[in-house]
């Protein structure tokens, strides 16, 4: 089976070789745990190191802000957007008129999953995308939890059907035990949980792979850092939080 390298140092070791191709992975965590950075690194390194075009579906942040945030890690995506190897789908600035017009791919109503899927399909075909990051999937069903499973399956069919591999970020509260609700947790192919825990007066970052269809993987809680070059995972270290 083909695997997709995450582009995150140490992470492929934790996944025993990378994410199985066409998997949709839920990247779940509380506020500030590093979900957006993980997702952006997966996409950026995909283009730069593996020549795999990527699409970021932006539901939580302004595309301009995303480009700026990525730059602080040295990830300048504008160049790759111009070369047709990277695309941002703006599903954030809807309803505020002119600023949305500056973006090439714009979703006018993210509550209409058909529109989102149509634009996603166009963008995938335009750039030959292999990787999708959707930040965050929570936004798509926060007002309609009964629709979560249906929405995720719709997206999964399109993404896997077109040969892409995806990371969907999922927002949970501090201390919450789940990953984003049963409808979503069972529908996705993989779950990676990012955590921030206070130990001896200091916040510690760690992650754990809860499930990953198509591969064995580490069952340990691995510490990771966010550096000025992005996320680094320590596959040989284990963090005990209890
Ligand atoms: N240049 C940097 N170097 C080190 N750490 C950084 C840097 N930039 C941001 N961070 C850390 O990353 C955190 C934000 O990460 P990120 O935006 O990926 O979180 P998130 O899980 O998506 O959060 P939310 O759900 O609240 O949007 C910051 O709170 C900060 O601790």
From TrEMBL:
Binding site for ATP: 29-36
InterPro entries given in the database record: KaiC-like_dom, KaiC_dom, P-loop_NTPase, UPF0273_KaiC-like
Keyword Transferase in record: yes
All copies of domain KaiC, residue ranges: 2-242
Source taxon at top rank: Archaea
Pfam families in alphabetical order: ATPase
Keyword vocabulary terms for this entry: ATP-binding, Nucleotide-binding, Transferase
Gene3D superfamilies noted in UniProt: P-loop containing nucleotide triphosphate hydrolases
Gene Ontology molecular function: ATP binding; transferase activity
Signal peptide: none
Similarity comment: family membership: Belongs to the UPF0273 family.
UniProt protein name: UPF0273 protein Metok_0658
């Amino acid at each position: 089976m083909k695997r997709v390298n995450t582009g995150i140092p140490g992470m492929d070791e934790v996944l025993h070789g990378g994410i199985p191709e066409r998997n949709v992975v839920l990247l779940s965590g509380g506020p500030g745990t590093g979900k957006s950075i993980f997702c952006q690194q997966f996409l950026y390194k995909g283009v730069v190191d593996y020549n795999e075009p990527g699409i970021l579906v932006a539901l939580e942040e302004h595309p301009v802000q995303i480009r700026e945030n990525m730059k602080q890690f040295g990830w300048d995506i504008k160049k790759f957007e111009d070369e047709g190897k990277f695309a941002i789908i703006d599903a954030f600035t809807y309803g505020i008129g002119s600023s949305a017009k500056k973006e090439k791919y714009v979703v006018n109503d993210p509550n209409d999953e058909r529109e989102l899927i149509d634009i996603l399909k166009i963008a995938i075909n335009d750039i030959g995308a292999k990787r999708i990051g959707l930040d965050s999937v929570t936004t798509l069903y926060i007002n309609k939890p009964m629709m979560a499973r249906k929405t995720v399956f719709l997206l999964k069919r399109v993404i896997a059907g077109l040969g892409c591999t995806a990371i969907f970020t999922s927002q949970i509260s501090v201390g919450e035990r789940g990953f984003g609700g049963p409808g979503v947790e069972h529908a996705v192919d993989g779950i990676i949980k990012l955590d921030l825990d206070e130990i001896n007066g200091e916040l510690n970052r760690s992650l754990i792979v809860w499930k990953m269809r198509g591969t064995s993987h580490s069952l340990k809680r691995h510490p990771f850092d966010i550096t000025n070059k992005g996320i680094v995972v320590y596959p040989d270290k284990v963090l005990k939080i209890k």
